[in-house]
């Protein structure tokens, strides 16, 4: 598996690269945002992205990478405040770790996001699409439209909505969403799920109700 490590600290990049290679990965390093955007390609299977880059803000790099590719992006940052994490997820990141982190946790997160990326689209028999009050979720094309207009969702936002669309009107537990979207049972993804849900609600507007069922999960139902 080829991983692009975007890190301007040469010592950190070398240590991280050595550990990832020991774990069986092939690594490529970029020490600034422009190089990272140039290096990401069809053979890249994951990106580890530092936010403190010398030429541009890492959030902007994340946004530009997401506009170019659907490859999983994990933000690795010393910025521990929640707002920065939310900005990263809104920019298209799939996950984040806060420095200093245990590299074993990073490897576990890499495995989780890449396992989900390799999974087949959620298509089942004749139910290749779901429509609720003008919101069309095409599970074959991985496309969402509202009254015929395409809504731009990140890959992770789409995956979450697709899981909920399979059970319209039914409460889907958080654990099931995390298991199907992130490929893990680890509850540490709950905060990421909440951030993505908030973003989906904003993008869909009032077209569809994405309801929170306290203590359980979420339910997709028609708008008012």
TrEMBL record:
Domain Response regulatory: from-to ranges: 2-114
4-aspartylphosphate sites (modified residues): 50
DNA-binding region(s) in UniProt: 127-222
GO molecular function annotations of the record: phosphorelay response regulator activity; transcription cis-regulatory region binding
Domain OmpR/PhoB-type: 127-222
Biological process per Gene Ontology, one example term: regulation of DNA-templated transcription
GO cellular component: cytosol; protein-DNA complex
Alphabetical keyword list: DNA-binding, Phosphoprotein, Transcription, Transcription regulation
Pfam families associated with the record: Response_reg, Trans_reg_C
PANTHER family, per the entry: REGULATOR OF RPOS, SENSORY TRANSDUCTION PROTEIN REGX3
Name of this protein: Sensory transduction protein RegX3
Organism: Leucobacter edaphi
């Amino acid at each position: 598996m080829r991983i692009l490590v975007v890190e301007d600290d040469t010592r950190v990049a070398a240590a991280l690269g050595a550990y990832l290679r020991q774990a069986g990965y092939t690594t490529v390093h970029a020490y600034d945002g422009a190089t990272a955007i140039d290096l990401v390609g069809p053979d890249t299977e994951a990106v580890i992205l530092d936010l403190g880059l010398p030429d541009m803000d890492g959030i902007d790099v994340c946004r530009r990478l997401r506009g170019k590719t659907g490859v999983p992006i994990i933000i690795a940052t010393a910025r521990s405040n929640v707002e920065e994490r939310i900005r990263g997820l809104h920019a298209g990141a799939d996950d984040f770790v806060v420095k200093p982190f245990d590299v074993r946790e990073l490897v576990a997160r890499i495995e989780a996001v890449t396992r989900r990326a390799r999974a087949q689209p959620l298509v089942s028999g004749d139910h290749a699409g779901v429509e609720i009050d003008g919101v069309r979720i095409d599970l074959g094309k991985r496309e969402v439209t509202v009254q015929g207009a395409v809504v731009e969702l990140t890959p992770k936002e789409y995956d979450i909505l697709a899981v909920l669309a399979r059970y319209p009107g039914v409460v889907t537990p958080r654990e099931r969403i995390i298991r199907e979207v992130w490929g893990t049972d680890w509850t540490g993804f709950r905060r990421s799920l909440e951030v993505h849900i908030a973003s989906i609600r904003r993008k869909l507007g009032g077209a569809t109700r994405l309801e929170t069922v306290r203590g359980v999960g979420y339910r997709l139902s028609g708008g008012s």
